[in-house]
Amino acid sequence: MRGRILKTVRVVAALIFLILYFLIFLDITSSLQAAFIGYATYIQFIPSMFEFIESLALASAGFLFIILFTVLLGRLYCSFLCPLGIFQDVFLFLKRKFKKKTRYAYLKPYHAVRYGILFVTVLLWMAGSAFLIIILDPYSIFGRVNVMLFKPAVAFVNNLISRILVSFDNYTLIPVDIKISGMFPLLVTAAFLSLILWMSLRFGRMYCTHICPLGTFLGIFSRFSVFRIHINRQYCNSCGKCALECKAGCIDSRNRKVDLSRCIACYNCLDTCPENGITYGLKRPSQPLDTHRSRPDLNKRKFLAEAGLLIASALSLHHSAFSQYGQREQRRRGRRKEPIPVSRDHPVIPPGAESLDNYNSQCTACYLCVSACPTNVIQPALFAFGWKGVLQPHMDFNLSFCNFDCTRCGEICPTGAIKPLDVETKKRTQLGKAEFIKQNCIVYLDDTDCGACSEHCPTKAVDMEPFRGTLMIPYVRPEICIGCGACEYACPTDPKSIFVNGNPEHVPAEKPKAEQLDAGDTEDFPF
Amino acid sequence: MKRRDFFRQGLGATVAAGASLMLGNVKHAFSLNPAPPGPEFDMVAIKGDDPAAMFDEGIKAMGGISTYVSPGQTVVVKPNIGWDTSPERAANTNPQLIKRIVEHCFEAGAKQVYVFDNTCDEWTKCYDNSGIKKAASDAGAKIIPGNTESYYRSVRIPNGKKLKEAKVHEQILDSDVFINVPVLKNHGSAKLTIAMKNLMGIVWDRRYWHRNDLHQCIADFITYKKPLLNIVDAYRVMKRNGPRGVSVEDVVQLNTQLISSDIVAIDAAAAKVFGLDPMDVGHIRIAHEMGSGNIDLDELNIKRIKL
């Protein structure tokens, strides 16, 4: 049967893509080729669109193909490519395995809600905040779920097996660090996943048909798609069997209509009709446009536009209120005797991010970089950048530091938030400048040598100078500092005695000077 | 639980605990008080232009590696692999030297040779770019990770003044022979890093050392654990910007290698090779004062070889 073939093709393709995305997000040893990850993310709509708008390069025009396919074949993306969509499908499939009588029903379109969400999302974006895109983009949600919930689990199992193998003197499986800072991004993600899965259990793919702004956007095109699901009014007797199978709840069997703007092209409804009343095929011009009744209400639109504007302006006013940065002056005063807490003017963002402006406007918080970073220094955050950059990751030097020769994050970032750098450029890119807080330092307080910060510094921007007797104490040469955070990570004091204050714009650092050394007389032993 | 089961399990546990204690003690006795069957020299110093050939000659003068490694024993070789840099930068031990040491161990009949370090930079990159992973595994050694805390076990350091406890890599605790192969370098905090300082790479929490008088902690640790044999790589030497170094300009060619069981003496000799008075390097002086070895090279029987 034709429907069965279509469905099989869909299931096979979807599973392949789902495995692909599991792979790239759960790559615990960072061993996948950057190019491979690049291909996988090329066909993700939001990242591809973000990168395209930034670079205007055809190399990132994957989203245009998705629009093209949507015009031709409907919301194919939602059932074939969208990892969050396929993940829900698997979830629903398993649900059916356990609970046989799973039936779906026609859902009211709630066009005001759907287009409202899309409208506010776009409006905020135009106003310079990707807030709702970050929160609602299905690819990014899938990424966050994987990196924060599944990856630690995979790593845990890996480490357990590794441990067992080691007891047999077998070191083939290496353990990996599980480092995730910040409970809030995790909680937010877990709550969001629960909500989506609850909606799936209750209504099917409701997140995709009613909330996801990308789905709604593609729906605008799929309404006019060339190939589509038809209900043949001659044969249809409104028995509703097809609607029972429709995860998207878009078949109104009573009125014998399919809401193509919500149809996710899963092909489950084909083959359900005993009368052959539901088919898949070319658009038939003779039929009246079946979605015309559900055009959005212009008054509602206007209201939503105004509401959106209001929200946008409120957010831009208050975005700094939630940021942990930019409050150092108040904190620093009047605490000379106490240990001085670290407070940064700006968070530190990964090499290649160029500037806070670029980073905040391009990043969708998919956490691919969080997953790919070999040293785990890129960490989830909730409000490191305020509302505007909600959930966007920052560099957490309490947990780790940026490896000098590594350029992994820029190679894999699919949105252009972190641009690829060659190694030499990366090694001279200043993410921030180290600042030394002498009053917290071991050498100053205890009169003992330490120098852990200087030890780890790859450019010797943190060097040691004489201090009380034979002691040496750190000092910073900011012009050659690249802000990798090695000093901050290595510093053993609490609060830290040295930290990296982020640059709002990355600048080139100076090259450390080096004179040739003379080995002297090496012929004889000095003892 | 039935009474019979209780006794059976209790007995089993007691026997197991007793056995592990006994075995543990045997191993401790073995590695804590290395009593090498008396090589002719206290130390061998070699000059040459091939680290592997230098080791061949040096260890021959010490009576061959079989003085230290018996057939069927497990050996752990601890180079410095702390940094993600290439061999020319001399931030890590020379890979050719490591390879040759592993080969000697196997020739002496070692059952297994392990190589690891608790690195500072990301460990897989350090292992790869130092060239040590390839060199050691080419020679047949098992290159093992030290990157997670699960590999480390807590030990007590009764004679330590500041350092009373440390978590030590299990392979150091479980292997029969411990060979320490540091590279001589300038060091921002410890002035020099040689054999004693290299042992910071077999413990988990280094920050504690930095917080609690670094030099004293380094000296304290060797009251607990001395390697059976130390081999100092001073072939290429990082003279400044250590321990990581900034560029190859920090490195000079000194073409030297030292071999000794006395970790204080070998550090003293290496300090002189570097051009410093060992008494000026805190941890070497303290270790000498604590009686862990001899800083006075005039009192030692040193064999000098020039190739």
Q: What is the radius of gyration of chain A? A: 28 Å
Which CATH class of the largest domain in chain B is shown?
Answer: Alpha Beta
Principal-axis shape of chain B equals globular
Mean of pLDDT of chain B = 89
Question: Could you state the order of secondary-structure elements of chain B as H and E?
Answer: HEHEHEHHEEEHEEEHHHEEHHE
CATH level-3 fold name of the largest domain in chain B: Rossmann fold
**Residue ranges of chain A: pLDDT <50 for 5 or more in a row?**
286-295, 317-323, 327-336
Helix content of chain B: 25-40%
Strand content of chain A: 5-15%
Average pLDDT confidence of chain A is: 88
Describe the structure.
The complex is a heterodimer of chains A (527) and B (307). Chain A contains 22 helices and 10 strands. By secondary structure, chain A is mainly α. Chain A folds into 2 domains: 293 residues, no CATH class; 173 residues, Alpha-Beta Plaits. In chain A, the strands form 5 sheets. Chain A has a two-stranded antiparallel ribbon. Chain A has a two-stranded antiparallel sheet with strand order 2-3. A two-stranded antiparallel ribbon of chain A has the order 5-6. In chain A, a hairpin with a 5-residue loop joins strand 8 and strand 9. In chain A, helix 7 crosses helix 14 and helix 9 packs across helix 10. The longest helix of chain A is centred in the N-terminal third of the chain and has 29 residues. With 307 residues, chain B is an alpha/beta fold. In chain B, strands 1, 2, 3, 4, 7, 8, 9, 10, 11 and 12 form a 10-stranded mixed beta sheet that branches. In chain B, helix 2 crosses helix 3 and helix 9 packs across helix 11. Chain B is globular, with a radius of gyration of 19 Å. Chains A and B meet through helix 9 and helix 21 of A and helix 4, strand 4, helix 8, helix 9 and strand 11 of B.
